[in-house]
Design goal:
The chain is of the alpha+beta class. The chain has twelve helices and nine strands. Helix 7 crosses helix 9, helix 8 packs across helix 9 and helix 10 runs antiparallel to helix 11. The N terminus is likely disordered.
Length: 410
């Protein structure tokens, strides 16, 4: 009995010691966990507070921008950034900015806070809605890594590094000059050689009045935006294609720029036909992206360019004749498009003649309904012709074939 007692006591003491040690460790670990959790929660609270302050600052900057308050715009920007932000302010105001929708992500740090910022802007748009696609990184989104100092409810921007500033209209990074009319804003790089925005404005205003008659959005586009590209901007956007004279850059469903090669061979600030074509694209396509059916898209733009003028005045009529003779054309109107420069002008011309014939035979309102269904809604020519023109597509082609053949033989 005595021996059994002597054997049991050490085990009991060891167990008691382990229990005591475990208890101490539990208390220590529990305390450490509590401290860590408290610290994490405090850090998260500081981060959320900083993000709210940064976001509120961006909202105030946007409000100052939209009301034309340059001082308010610069009031939350460190002096070293004031030059870049003054230039950005001038460009946005010059392009008739109508919306400023900021978003912040990845806010971290302290006392200097890093934040990823994306700001969607709209230009001359009747509305600028926030949608799931708002921040798709297209040409009218400002994307930047930023740094801020935050004290209380005040944030000051101390670092601003933009990304994705490429594009044919360098409003994010270069100084632009402007001329503003009733329906058009003409912009250009500050040191563009040759004609100025003011010289291009009268023809652009006349072209806009014509394009407005064919606008397929309600309300109509805000002011049309025309950018006069110098050689560097044109080379960046188009490359070595010297036959093109202009194109439309649709950066989103609400914004589009007519980009003109202003220093290329043959550039003419009085070329109302060219401007009608490009503004016609904006009037008929705004609100959509990535349309196919180039024969209808380009044909309609050419139709608008030559609205009210006889077919005999059409400058590409010889290209249409070449196409008819060299392809053995048999009356098809919805021709397959080609990127081959040797075929481009013939296809432009045939698209124009197709639209001109439909308007002549079925009426211009029906032509616009047909275009809407084919280009904006993606219907086939036959589906669209039956509903919009009241005839199957084969009948429309049969009607237009002799008319177009007669035009090209004159």
């Amino acid at each position: 009995m005595i021996g059994e007692v002597n054997i049991a006591r050490p085990a009991t003491r060891r167990t008691d010691r382990w229990v005591a040690v475990f208890g101490v460790l539990t208390l220590l670990c529990g305390g450490f966990f509590t401290l860590s959790l408290t610290y994490s929660r405090a850090a998260a609270t500081r981060s959320q507070s900083a993000e709210r302050t940064i976001r509120a600052t961006l909202d105030r900057q946007g409000a100052a921008l939209l009301r034309g308050d340059r001082t308010g715009w610069l009031s939350t920007v460190e002096e070293s950034l004031s030059g870049d932000w003054a230039r950005l302010y001038a460009n946005l105001r010059g392009l008739q900015v109508s919306g400023w929708l900021p978003r912040t992500r990845g806010v971290a740090g302290g006392p200097v806070w890093d934040a990823e910022v994306q700001i969607r802007v709209c230009f001359a748009a009747p509305s600028c809605a926030r949608t799931p696609e708002t921040y798709v990184p297209l040409g009218d989104v400002i994307s930047a890594r930023t740094k801020w100092t935050v004290r209380g409810d005040r944030a000051v921007l101390t670092g601003f590094e933009q990304s994705a500033t490429d594009g044919p209209v360098p409003w994010k990074s270069e100084t632009l000059t402007f001329a503003t009319g009733r329906r058009v804003v003409v912009a250009a790089p500050e040191h563009l050689p040759g004609a100025t925005p003011a010289q291009w404005l009268p023809a652009a205003e006349r072209a806009a009045q014509v394009a407005d008659r064919y606008a397929l959005t309600e309300p109509k586009p805000g002011r049309y935006l025309v950018f006069l590209a110098g050689r560097p901007e044109w080379d960046t956007a188009v490359g070595t294609d010297r036959e093109a004279a202009a194109f439309v850059d649709r950066t989103s469903e609400s914004t589009a720029f007519a980009v003109v090669d202003a220093t290329g061979l043959g550039a003419d600030f009085a070329d109302e036909i060219l401007l009608r074509h490009e503004l016609g694209h904006i009037a008929t396509l705004l609100g959509t992206l990535d349309n196919g059916d180039e024969w209808a898209v380009e044909g309609m733009a050419e139709y608008i360019a030559y609205a009210g003028r006889p077919v005999s005045s059409y400058e590409l009529i010889l290209d249409a004749r070449w196409h008819v003779e060299h392809t053995g054309w048999r009356g098809r109107l919805d021709l397959e498009w080609s990127t081959d420069p040797s075929e481009r002008f013939g296809l432009y011309a045939m698209g124009f003649l197709a639209m001109r014939c439909i308007a002549q035979e079925y009426g211009e309102p029906r032509l616009l309904n047909f275009f809407t269904e084919v280009v904006r809604r993606g219907e086939s020519p036959d589906e669209a012709s039956r509903s919009a023109l009241g005839a199957p597509w084969v009948a429309v082609e049969r009607t237009c074939r002799p008319i177009i053949a007669g035009w090209v033989k004159r």
